[in-house]
Amino acid sequence: GYTIDLNLSALKPPTLHNGNGLISFGLGGFSYYYSRTRVAVTGTLLDHQQRLPVSGDVWMDHQWGNFLLLGGGGWDWYSIQLNDQSEMMLYVIRNASGQITSTYAEYIGPDARELQVPGSSLNVSVWDHWTSPTTGITYPSGWQLKINDPHLQANLTLQPELKNQELVATQSTGNTYWEGAVSVQGQSTGHAVQGEGYVELTGYHK
């Protein structure tokens, strides 16, 4: 009952993560990874014969390679688009015991310049949780992201647009995810900001 007809136009060049687009997972191998962090979209959404004009900003992510995250762990991944025309891509990877094995933080300025800050400068705190009625899994459901670096100071609050954005994909990827839209507000580079984001969570179990 749904049809989309969208036109997309990149507003910034692609961001090659880690400087050259190559991410190392240690014993897990390597992946290529780039994002188009701000893409203009216009078009129509057909919702059961009701035609709705839509417009907005898109984040396009592409990651591929011969890699494997070992040990049954998971990750928390955040993409953020702020109203000052900057973006952030952040992630935290955990092993099976819940210990953090890798942290990444990158800032893309309004002028498209990229700044990778040390993972140690990123602090993520969870201030709410949500339990799925389908799987019984309890997920984080609200975050405070702080970056404290000489080149970037940021303090952002992320709030899910919907509590239930769980995706059970056990018959395709083999994983169960919580992934979906969040609203963002706070401060970045000394200014008040707001925006939109997308969060992906894996590795959480009942």
Task: Characterise this structure.
This protein is an all-beta fold and 206 residues long. The protein is 0% helix and 65% strand. It has no helices and 17 strands. The protein has strands at 2-10, 15-16, 22-24, 30-47, 50-64, 74-82, 87-94, 100-108, 114-117, 122-126, 129-131, 138-140, 143-149, 152-160, 166-169, 175-188, 191-201. Strands 6, 7, 8, 9, 10, 13, 14, 15, 16 and 17 form a ten-stranded antiparallel beta sheet that branches. A hairpin with a 6-residue loop joins strand 11 (129-131) and strand 12 (138-140). It is globular, with a radius of gyration of 17 Å. The protein starts with a strand and ends in a 5-residue tail after the last strand.
Quick tags:
0% helix; ten-stranded antiparallel β-sheet; mainly beta; 206 residues
Task: Give helix and strand order, one letter per element, not per position.
Answer: EEEEEEEEEEEEEEEEE
Number of helices: 0
The helical percent reads under 10%
Arithmetic mean of pLDDT = 94
Radius of gyration: 17 Å
Strand content: over 45%
Structural class: mainly beta
* Uncertain residue segments: none
Q: Describe the biggest sheet? A: 10 strands, antiparallel
Question: What is the count of β-strands?
Answer: 17
Q: Span between N and C termini?
A: 33 Å
Shape: globular
